[in-house]
Design a protein that fits this description.
alpha/beta, Aspartate Aminotransferase, domain 1, three-stranded antiparallel β-sheet, binds pyridoxal-5'-phosphate, Aspartate Aminotransferase, domain 2
Amino acid sequence: MGLFKKSAPADSGTITMIPAAKPIIGDEERAAVDRVLRSGMLAQGPEVKAFEEEFSHYVDGRHCIAVNSGTSALHLGFIAAGIKAGDEVIVPSFSFAATANSVALAGGTPVFADIDPRTFNMDPDHVESLITSRTKAIMPVHLYGHIAAMDRFEAICKKHNLLLIEDSAQAHLATLNGRPSGAWGTVASFSFYPTKNMTAGEGGMVTTDNAETARMLRLLRNQGQEVIYQNEVVGFNNRMTDIHAAIGRVQLRKLPAWTATRQKNAEYLSANLKGVTTPFIAPGTTHAFHQYTIRIEGNDAAKRDLFMTRIRERGIGCGVYYPTPIHRLPSFKLQLDLPETEKVIKECVSLPVHPSLSKADLEKIVSVVNDVAAAL
Ligand SMILES: *Cc1c(COP(=O)(O)O)cnc(C)c1O
């Protein structure tokens, strides 16, 4: 995703850039890794088990199965949920490619729905209009940390007898009506990639409320075996190492405070930014602010790009997540009519919101964005 490129100042070396994202790795993470290295047991073991138990507290006590990436979590989740060739899964096109890749890798067919431009998440009405006799599941993505309309999706799935699956890669600790992301779907997936709200280096977590599905997920991640050399199903090696789990455990302890800081940073930005459309927070939700995404209204990508160039020149890192809707990527190449997705893709810009921002950083973001927006 190119997020670790040093964003060089456009004109001189004198401007320091406020980065768009910044993983926080401290002494505790280093000590945790060292502890595992010294133990001599590096692969999946007690750290992974402890990480799963600790993560479970944040998803209403559901079964948690740690894997080597968020993509693996989605992929194994679909297989364990029974998605197979010919099954259609409705997903947003306005997401990271892994959302749809994982459906296709499980043998299913992603069917792309449009979004509600206010929340950037799938529009329940459009989703319902796409249901066919082959539809097997609906998978909302809680994009940027804003939980999707899960109460609506839950009702739609009940009515049409479909599976509800969550891509919660960006939404650790987001809630709707007090119920956390990852505690709604038959299966849900989280990512611990370095730019996410917490990291394990790389890693993912599948959550489920079903003990049989949990057992299948444990088999699938480990060559189909629960007892060594007694392979019950054809499985993968998608295990998480104890090294990664040890990092994840430390980060999980810090996640609630980091999330609160993200929310405070977002509140400050929304109270002070002018001339841009600030993020909407739907009633009943708590937003995890993986990204703080504004819109430069006008359905004009050139205007948005000019805005980005100008704020970068003045030291504000920013990004477009994601510049091409999944259905138009060379990997899918579909011609679809998703007008809200196409419009938002030309207007969205994500500004820094991560917990390392200082008060001075926030003030600088506000003054630069307001200046540039006023002159556009
Ligand atoms: C990051 C991400 C993934 C994939 O997670 P990885 O850990 O990078 O494999 C899937 N879906 C969304 C929406 C993501 O942001």
